[in-house]
Amino acid sequence: MPKDITKKQYSNMVKKASPDSPIITNCLKAFFVGGIICTIGQLITNCCRIFGLSIEQSGNFTSIILVIAASVLTGLGLYSKLGKFAGAGSIVPITGFSNSVTAPAIEFKKEGFILGLGAKIFIVAGPVILYGVLTSIAVGIVYYILS
Amino acid sequence: MDYLKAFVVGGIICVIGQILIDKTKLTSARILVLFVVCGCVLGGLGWYQKLVEFAGAGASVPLFGFGNTLARGVMSEIDEAGAMGIFTGGLKAAAGGITAAIVSAFVMACIFDPKEK
Domain for residue A93, yes or no? Predict the structure, then answer.
């Protein structure tokens, strides 16, 4: 190996030798899995519309079905497998929120039903609800003043 | 056609999340909070609803949609009930998702034990 190698050449060599950044693959996986979850959501929404529910009701119903489905998959241990493959594709949809509620509930059951399951069930949902509500209050105050 | 729109828009929103995870090392809990807060702000501005009208579940299923629901709930409740709606509107609109999440989580926790890793 030649000794008179510059820093730049060296970093180029490192770049060549190290594997390609997985970010493209990760993004493709997230795109497909996230897209499929949303397509399933659209299917549920369309079915609700056929049964005569309003747009708002259909949206609500879709969320509830997806949340329950993701919760069951989490209980069966399948959602974490999906998560390993899909990354953000399984976190960003509302199914990821459901998973983040169910997973700690199961995990901390052994610490008791009150301070184990009962407290840890909100370990991720708590911050999400807290900051969501705070933001919605801010939106509400601005909206009230402007209207 | 609405399935294709839902697939593409939902997929793109998830890619935004994936880029954040890969580039900034944000944990998934932070991603969830960030998305709900952003969705709530975009919903308050009225922009996100336009995306929901275009992409349907592609925009409402990701957590931006959850934030959007909070914002829209607050605004419609203010229209109906006045200032009190600032406090009651958000969670009222999001009640279905939150209740489903905690009830089904409780039931699952009663049925299943933690899986060995």
Answer: yes
Residue A92 CA, distance from chain mean position: 3
- On chain B, the residues whose CB falls within 8 A of the CB of A44 are 57
Cβ pair B6:A39 closer than 8 A: yes
- B1 pLDDT band, cuts 50/70/90, is confident
Distances (CA, A) of B54 to A57, A107, B36, B50, B51: 18, 39, 20, 6, 5
pLDDT band, residue A73 (cuts 50/70/90): very high
Any domain includes A44 = yes
CA distance A1 to chain B (A): 34
Nearest Cα to Cα of residue B40 among B9, B64, B75, B13? B64
Delimit the domains of chain B by residue range. 2-111
ipTM over 0.90: yes
SS3 (DSSP) at A93: strand
Q: How confident is the model at residue B115 (pLDDT cuts 50, 70, 90)?
A: confident
Q: In terms of residue numbers, what domain contains A77?
A: 7-107
Q: Which of A16-20, A101-105, B88-92, B109-113 has the lowest mean pLDDT?
A: A16-20
In chain A, how many domains are there? 1
Cβ neighbours, 10 Å, residue A108: 20
Provide mean pLDDT across the span A38-53: 96
Cross-strand bridge partners of residue A93: B62
CA-based nearest residue to A71, from B2, B52, B60, B106? B106
Give the SS3 label for residue B114: coil
Query: What is the DSSP code (8-state) at residue A117?
Result: I
Contact B14 A124 (CB under 8 A): no
